[in-house]
Amino acid sequence: MSRDCAEYRQQLTLFHYHELDAGETEAVETHITQCGSCERELQQLRKLLSAVPQTDFSFNSAQRQRFSEKVMTARRRRFFPQWGTWGGVLAGAAVLIYLLILPVSTTPPPSKTPALVDFEILEQLELLQDMELLQDLELLQQLEEAG
Amino acid sequence: MPRLSLTPEGAMSTLLTMQPQSETILLELARNGQERAFSQLVDTHSEKVLGLALRLTGQREVAEEIAQEAFLRLFKSLESFRGDSRLGTWLYRTVTRLAIDHLRREKIKRRIFFLRNKETEQCDPLERVADTSASPHDILQARETARQIQGVIDQLPARQKAIFVLRHQEELPLKEIAAMLSLELGTVKAHLHRAVNRLRREFPNEKESP
User: Between B153 and A135, where is the model more confident?
Assistant: First the structure.
């Protein structure tokens, strides 16, 4: 196979599909009339490509109608969701948000927590103890004065 | 593109009896919320769009999903679709891209799970086109050859397969395919060349089908 043949064979696919420009097409045509080997190569290529299955897709009007309906249903679902479907979800979400936020936003003014009450009682007890101590001191002074 | 003032139902019923030249008007009506107009567009293009998706994926269910997704994307893009390309071309481009994505994902899945391509799911178009004068042996041989060829086509890289299908089966010019896939013409030619070379390597002495 000459170098020319190799170059022409590179072009056979595009030649088969009529994708070469006019000059290239003419050159290939001229070559294959003079070269039996390249002509056979082209024939082989054409036989192979003619055996490629053609997926003939038949689609009758009923099937077309069914497909159109399917698309339209999918369109409504995706772009126009029904409130009936989302209403429950939104209502649930609203209730959840309300429950989560409400305790924070409606927190009553600071009130005495049990811990705070306990602390105050302790303070009072300490005061009472202080008072008792003072009373004891006064008693001691009185005893000293009395001699 | 200026907006048309066609909105009444009367105009709609007239359009439904018209041929594809009414496409621009149908698009405008669909933009204005006319459900029937969009439905009519789907109906007009569904056969070709489904056919392409089926040729690219080889599976009817998948083809329907891809075709549906293409129409849904069209609906989403109605506002921005101003007819720079024909609607058919736009849909072909979308289907091809979706199918390429699907084929790539499938290939990855097959690699991950070590699954072989389900050749039994491939349709057998030769059954419909077989020459009735051929002998049963020849018919069987042709079917087997077609099955094997389809198997090789299915193993091509996704973009290569898409370009081969678009050129060989959809008979689209390579220039149009290049524009559709936003590729250089030279790249598209190279992909086609590689796809055909792969077939030639796999079937070096292909006999003529009956």
Answer: B153
The rounded distance, in Å, linking the Cα atoms of A136 and B85 is 106
- In chain A the first and final C-alpha atoms are separated, in Å, by 144
A73 touches chain B (CB under 8 A): no
The minimum CA-CA distance between B114 and chain A, rounded to whole Å, is 27
Q: What are the tens digits of pLDDT across the range B2-16?
A: 444 444 444 444 444
pLDDT given at position A13: 96
Q: Report the alpha-carbon distance of residue A48 to residue A112 in Å, rounded.
A: 93
Nearest-by-CA chain B residue for A46: B208
pLDDT for position A32: 94
Structure tokens at A20: 């070469």
What would the two tokens of residue A132 be? 């008792």
A72 touches chain B (CB under 8 A): yes
Q: Which residues contact B170 (CB under 8 A, 6 or more apart)?
A: B52, B55, B92
Q: What is the per-residue pLDDT across B19-45, written as a single tens digit (0 to 9) for each?
A: 556 788 889 899 998 999 999 999 999
**Token digits for B70?**
């293409």
Q: Is the dihedral of CA B135, B139, B142, B148 positive or negative?
A: negative
Question: CA-to-CA distance for B151 and B61, rounded, in angstroms?
Answer: 19
Query: B98: buried, middle or exposed (CB in 10 Å: 19+, 13-18, 0-12)?
Result: buried
Q: Cα separation of B15 and B36, whole Å? A: 10
Q: How far apart are CA B138 and CA B143, in angstroms?
A: 9
- Residue in chain A closest to B42 (alpha carbons) equals A68
Q: Which one is predicted more confidently, B204 or A13?
A: A13
- Would you say residue A110 has pLDDT above 80? no
